[in-house]
């Protein structure tokens, strides 16, 4: 009996620790994210939808909901608002009439690129809180255990898609960095 109680206690404490730490992190992430995208007249869901469709090179509404961790109706409704602003387009595919697909427009890509260029114009508490770890260990935390938990919940495809979107973001940031560097060289000449 005592082993059963201990196991339940351990599991409850673990669950509560994860919940409280996640909530604390989300609170600062949400605040920082909102401050970052405020100049672009976007909310977090809209920004998330734009980035998902940008880095996935288009996606179904269902995929946007899945990878954006939001309800399908949320993904659809916010996507409609973005379509009205000319940032997304909706389409059906000949081979898949059931799903609605979303593509980011050039105007939407430009908006995301512009927001990325100005990322450091606002503060980012999680980043600032992680810098000391980078200075100490030479790299930012990798969240291997958290990634494993998410993989166990959502599956390999979810994590692989996230990793592909991070690689795409990294490539886009390299291009932006080259453009900025080229622009600075032209000013010096």
UniProtKB/TrEMBL annotation:
PROSITE patterns: HTH_MARR_1, HTH_MARR_2. One of its GO terms (molecular function) is DNA binding. The keyword Transcription applies. Transmembrane segments: none annotated. SMART domains: HTH_MARR. InterPro entries: HTH_MarR-typ (IPR000835), MarR/SlyA-like (IPR039422), Tscrpt_reg_MarR-type_CS (IPR023187), WH-like_DNA-bd_sf (IPR036388), WH_DNA-bd_sf (IPR036390). GO terms for biological process: response to stress. The keyword Transcription applies. This is Transcriptional regulator. The lineage of its organism: Bacteria, Bacillati, Bacillota, Bacilli, Bacillales.
